[in-house]
Amino acid sequence: MRRFVFLLFAIGLLAVVGQGQDWRAIDTANSTLTIRAYKSGLLSGLAHNHEIRARVAAGRVSLAPEAVELKVETARLEVLDPGLAADKRAEIQQRMLGAEVLDTATYPVISFSSQSVRKTGDNRWRVTGELTLHGQTHPVSVEVTRAGDNFRGSAAVLQHEFGIKPVSVAGGAGKVKDQVAVEFDIRLATQN
Fold first, then answer.
1. Which CATH homologous superfamily contains domain 21-187?
2. C-alpha neighbours within 13 Å on the C-beta side of residue 148
3. Dihedral of CA 145/150/112/178: which sign?
4. Residue 10: how many CA atoms within 13 Å on its side-chain side?
5. Which residue ranges make up each domain of the chain?
6. Inter-residue contact 168 to 140 (CB < 8 Å)
7. d(CA 31, CA 150)
């Protein structure tokens, strides 16, 4: 009987904690995460900058008080790089998703959950939260702007902090920089 009473108490507490949030679903068909990785090194002229994108798989935004949660499936990340031949792009795609970089079989999800939101101007915020990538979670601050039901933001992320070794070739003479730019374009789902 005690367990049953405790369970009812816990369910009631969770319901109270969730109240007060004005959660709205993210429009996953029109919300994206983009990663920009830049080249460096002596032979960087022979290397390529990379643009990688995926749709946001799930998420929600609270407008009062402000909060955000989102998830991206790592296997859905796609190397765009329009200047590359299709076979070279496919090779980069395979390497990125494989065990050497993202290891999508082991780490299928990238997630972000805000911990604090500070207004920095009209329709501008600094959102600090926990980013989980490659099985590791670290705090990240994101600069966010809003236009209607559309939120855009960006942050700089160091790959090594998440246990990812930046890809290099020719003994490191050509490589991807440790710091990558992570950008998002989030649209709220239409309310019914």
1. Lipid/polyisoprenoid-binding, YceI-like (2.40.128.110)
2. 7
3. negative
4. 6
5. 21-187
6. no
7. 9
- Is the torsion defined by CA of 123, 116, 190, 181 positive or negative? positive
Q: How many CB atoms are located within 10 Å of the residue 187 CB?
A: 19
Tens place of pLDDT for every residue, the chain, 192 residues? 444 333 334 344 333 344 568 899 999 999 999 999 987 754 445 567 889 999 999 999 998 899 999 999 999 999 999 888 999 899 989 989 999 899 999 999 999 999 999 999 999 999 999 999 999 999 999 999 999 999 999 999 999 999 998 876 544 444 688 999 999 999 999 986
Burial 11-43 (b: 16+ CB within 10 A, else e): eeeeeeeeeeeeebebbbeebebbbebebbbee
Is the CB of residue 115 less than 8 Å from the CB of residue 68? no
User: CA 163, CA 165: separation in Å to the nearest integer?
Assistant: 6
Paired tokens of 154: 């960006």
Question: Does the pTM of the predicted model rise above 0.85?
Answer: no
Burial degree of 119 (CB within 10 A; 0-12, 13-18, 19+)? exposed
Beta-ladder partners of 133: 136
Rounded CA separation 124/109 (Å): 27
